[in-house]
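During the reporting period the student researcher (J.K.) took over the structure-prediction task from the postdoctoral fellow and processed the backlog of single-chain submissions. One of the processed entries is reproduced below for the supervisory committee.
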Amino acid sequence: MIDIYAILKILPHRYPFILVDRILELDPGKYIVGIKNVTINEPFFQGHFPGFPIMPGVLIVEAMAQTWGICVFALNPEDAQNKNLFFSGIDNARFRKPVEPGDQLRLELNLMKHRGILWKFKGIATVGGELVAEAELLASVIDKNPPQKITGENNQEKSGQA
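J.K. obtained the following structure tokens:
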């Protein structure tokens, strides 16, 4: 099991945008199960929706992606320090039931395909064993500090033409 302290060492996200609290199962790069404890103190509940608070579906999908980031970085923990996992696509997203304060969101993700920097994975989210959301996600692992592009101005300055 991976606790929140270890998760914070892996993911760059911080409050209020860290959306995974614990990892229950992990097969690095292949399969992961994570938990998000949904509380009334979540900042999004103030406006989504007053009097009927439900977790936005896009944040459920974001929780899936963050959980998958842990799965990918478990293959090579050093990558968590110098790479980020970015969304590249979302397919077949479906939201079946609302997620409310007090719910424990269980996030299960499985590898569908991996090639180079691209990862395709299937995620399901359940509450109390009932399906609340599902999606196929595509993500890219990108260096945090990509090489600087040399613009026309920089080229002129370097060649003394400025």
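The committee noted the following: The chain has four helices and six strands.
J.K. will present the remaining backlog at the next meeting.
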